[in-house]
């Protein structure tokens, strides 16, 4: 699986859009970009995923660059409850032969300021 | 619809004791997983089960055993607990089975079990 690079921490004012970047310059054509978050003392929570096109759901938007070497997760109106560690993961399609699980790195600790 | 549930929430063991962590999901998912998360670190896969009746090792299986009791339940057993197994344990499930396009398969996590081994 391709490696990802994320800033260790970011601040955002409550009510503003939070833009979390992720670099994945070695991503291959069949790897999806996934975003999860983990609020303190809770289990990881799925946010969104995409392959090539930009995606939007009720929680967030995912913008993937045309060359797919980086992406940005956007929380459009951040609230205090969005304070969490956000993980960007790229994953090979159909890789059921080995450990078919997620590997989380250090992620970005997003702090929403009141 | 409770999603993924885990019991117990907290547990303290002495070195050498055994225990079983329980996990159940009510989403009719095929695959289930056990992870551990050590302080300041990401998740590491211990074991997974791609379908009822099958289990496979993940990244850190030593010291653990698992049982896929039925489609809903996947338990993790520590036969002889060691201080190095002090961690937070998460169970997860996903709809797909091994071989399906992973990109369409999202994992959903339980609330975790905080285990301390003295």
Number of helices of chain A: 0
Strand numbers in spatial order across the main sheet of chain A:
1-9-8-3-4
Largest interface: A-B, 28 and 33 residues
Tell me the total number of β-strands of chain B.
Answer: 11
Share in helix of chain B: under 10%
Number of beta strands of chain A: 9
The helix-strand sequence of chain A is EEEEEEEEE
Which consecutive residue ranges of chain A, at least 5 long each, have pLDDT under 50?
Answer: 95-99
Question: What assembly state would you assign to the polypeptide chains in this entry?
Answer: heterodimer
Determine the mean pLDDT of chain B. 89
Q: Unreliable stretches of chain B, pLDDT < 50, 5 or more residues?
A: none
Net shape of chain B = globular
State Rg of chain A.
Answer: 14 Å
Distance between the termini of chain B: 36 Å
Describe the structure using short key phrases.
heterodimer, A: about 110 residues, mainly beta, 4-stranded antiparallel beta sheet, 9 strands, about 0% helix, globular, B: about 120 residues, 7-stranded mixed beta sheet, about 45% strand
């Amino acid at each position: 699986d391709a490696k990802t690079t994320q800033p260790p921490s970011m601040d955002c004012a409550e009510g503003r859009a939070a833009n979390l970047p992720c670099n994945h310059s070695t991503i291959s054509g069949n790897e999806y970009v996934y975003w999860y978050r983990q609020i303190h003392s809770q289990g990881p929570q799925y946010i969104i995923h995409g392959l090539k096109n930009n995606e939007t759901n009720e929680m967030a938007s995912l913008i993937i660059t045309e060359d797919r070497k980086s992406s940005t997760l956007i929380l459009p109106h951040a609230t205090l409850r969005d304070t969490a560690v956000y993980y960007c993961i790229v994953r090979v399609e159909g890789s059921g032969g080995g450990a078919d699980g997620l590997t989380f790195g250090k992620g970005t600790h997003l702090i929403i300021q009141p | 619809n409770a999603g993924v549930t885990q019991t117990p929430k907290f547990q303290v063991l002495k070195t050498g004791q055994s225990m079983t962590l329980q996990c159940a999901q009510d989403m009719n998912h095929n695959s289930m997983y056990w992870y551990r998360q050590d302080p300041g670190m990401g998740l590491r896969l211990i074991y997974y089960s791609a379908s009822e009746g099958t289990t496979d090792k993940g990244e850190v299986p030593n010291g653990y055993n698992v049982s896929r009791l039925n489609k809903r339940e996947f338990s993790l057993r520590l036969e002889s607990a060691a201080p190095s197994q002090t961690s937070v344990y998460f169970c997860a499930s996903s709809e797909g089975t091994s071989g399906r396009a992973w990109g369409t398969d999202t994992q959903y996590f339980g609330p975790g079990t905080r285990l301390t081994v003295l």
